[in-house]
Amino acid sequence: MIIISLNSDKNKEKTYSWLVMLKIKSLVEELAHVVGADNVVWEKEDLIVYEYDGSIDRSLPLAVVLPGSAAEVSKCVKISNKYNCSIVARGAGTGLSGGAVPLKQSLVICLTRLKRIIEVDEKNRLSVVEPGVVNIKLSDAIKDKGLFYAPDPSSQKACTIGGNVSENAGGPHCFSLGVTTNHVLGMEIVLSNGEITWIGAKSRSYTGYDLRGAFIGSEGTFGIITKIIVRLMKIPESVSTILAAFKSMDDASNTVSEVISAGMIPAALEMMDRITIEACEPVYNPKYPKGSEAVLLIEIDGITESVKEEIDIVKKICTQNNSIEIRQANNESDRVKLWETRKGAIGAYGTIAPTYYLVDGVVPRTKLTEVLREVKNIGRKLEVTIGNVFHAGDGNIHPAILFDGRKKTEVNQAIRAGGEILEVCVKAGGALSGEHGIGTEKQDYMRLVFNEEDLRAMKKLRAAFVQTDKNVDVEKFNPYKIFPRGSNDDEIYKLNDPEFYPTGGEEWA
Ligand SMILES: Cc1cc2nc3c(=O)[nH]c(=O)nc-3n(C[C@H](O)[C@H](O)[C@H](O)COP(=O)(O)OP(=O)(O)OC[C@H]3O[C@@H](n4cnc5c(N)ncnc54)[C@H](O)[C@@H]3O)c2cc1C
């Protein structure tokens, strides 16, 4: 038996860190007993992989566990309760708002082993999938049946459907078909006491509150999704895609407004600006016309005859707005080539700067022209390079602030520019996020849109999901996210049993 004197501060510190180590060891052992030792990550050099997502923030998890079934997820949640630690669910970690970054030294539950497509019901046009299914793999798997899953984030080759549901992801083809919430019928979830339950159903209507709708977009703060029932769409009879280049952003923005006011709802209506074009040229070699300040990618789908008619109208509108070149895809491989550049554009920013901060704001479509001008002015004023690649049809802008993340001053300028852009979006009557969520990135801007009453109502909703057991902290799942910092001390949050987090979670530090 080792006897330690606690007289000196140094010994106290040592004893404290041994106790912490023992606690972690014991937690890891219990988790390993459930999922197997190979599916628990706890050594620092391995944990580093899980300290970030696609945003700027970083934070090391306590440990990472990769369960292989809903039952295992439930057991892991129960074990975490024994050790008073919070949980952050993680899909592929492609999120852009810090959602999967484990604050408060949380235990990360990574869902990537839950990747089965459990059922494809052609007659009812639905599928049951596990949350770790990579988005594009579902559409690939059902293509032969003439079906597809509509929400298609540009990250679809990597991101998971569980992450998409949690962020209510959108994508280039969500303009006409709607975002994730329009394509998810129900979910199996694990609650904070480890209970496994279902919300929503295979049928399209059900009685009672729409808990499914509330859960979608809750950014991992309500519980863990372990199965998802998704709607499937029929691949349209005909698709036509054009690319139109313009000498000014204003001409491109006006084209967007005119296409929509002409009564059309294109399947996709995407815009890229000059900086994005310059980033893409050396990577994808699309050979956009010299002098292009903006390109639009417009896709129309539906019945062959109406597609033909509508694409002619779109081309006419582009020409009237001074388009300098219009390219039309003549076959599927042309179409894939046109999309390749758009879908890979964000990665191509690496040719300009080592780091990007992709802002996500929504503005009324009619304000696109003036908002984009203001974004440009912010870039000039703060001396930061800002590219733009976005879902123009939805007014969902994505200014990409390009900087060097190794330089603190550049990081600060990027964050400042992002904040000013969000303020411009809100002033224009828009929203803080179109698809990337709030996470840590936008939490301090929440008060631009919501007052204290609104925030309180949201917290009550969270408490309704999380406090299934009075001994569980409201911030059990994904702590310190979404709500403005400094707002976590109101009475909803005081429902916590003070004994439960004896040191506010700091004991893991
Ligand atoms: C190049 C690039 C392009 C992008 N383009 C788009 C786009 O067009 N549209 C768009 O919407 N987004 C886009 N994104 C952002 C990102 O891909 C999406 O937010 C995506 O939905 C995140 O999925 P993920 O599996 O990576 O989730 P993660 O980043 O791992 O997690 C995201 C959030 O979901 C929670 N979560 C994950 N799995 C679960 C689960 N099973 N249960 C409960 N909570 C869970 C996490 O806690 C976190 O809060 C893009 C990102 C990149 C890097």
Q: Enumerate how many helices there are, as a single number.
A: 14
pLDDT average, as an integer? 91
SS class: alpha+beta
Kindly report how far apart the N and C termini lie: 26 Å
- Major beta sheet, specifics? 7 strands, antiparallel
Q: List low-pLDDT spans.
A: 489-509
Characterize the quaternary organization of these chains: single chain
Described by the principal axes of the CA atoms, the overall outline is: globular
The level-1 CATH class of the domain at 117-234: Alpha Beta
Ligand inventory reads: flavin-adenine dinucleotide
The CATH topology of the domain at 117-234 comes to Uridine Diphospho-n-acetylenolpyruvylglucosamine Reductase, domain 3
Radius of gyration over C-alpha positions, nearest whole angstrom:
24 Å
Q: In which range does the helix fraction lie?
A: 25-40%
| Count of individual beta strands | 20
CATH second-level architecture of the domain at 117-234: 2-Layer Sandwich
Provide the β-strand percentage band. 15-25%
Strand order in space, largest sheet: 15-12-14-13-18-20-16
Lay out the secondary structure:
Blueprint: H1 9-35, E1 40-41, H2 44-47, E2 63-65, H3 70-82, E3 87-90, E4 107-110, E5 117-121, E6 126-129, H4 135-142, E7 147-148, H5 161-167, H6 174-177, E8 184-190, E9 196-200, H7 211-215, E10 224-231, E11 233-234, E12 238-246, H8 249-261, E13 268-273, H9 274-284, E14 294-302, H10 304-320, E15 325-328, H11 332-348, E16 355-358, E17 361-362, H12 368-382, E18 385-391, E19 396-397, E20 399-403, H13 408-427, H14 452-466
Parallel strand pairs: 2-4, 3-4
Antiparallel strand pairs: 1-2, 5-6, 6-10, 7-11, 8-9, 8-10, 12-14, 12-15, 13-14, 13-18, 16-20, 17-19, 18-20
The protein binds flavin-adenine dinucleotide.
Residues 53-54, 88-96, 99-100, 111, 131, 153-155, 159-160, 162-164, 166-167, 169-171, 219-220, 224-225, 346-347, 435-436, 478 line the site of flavin-adenine dinucleotide.
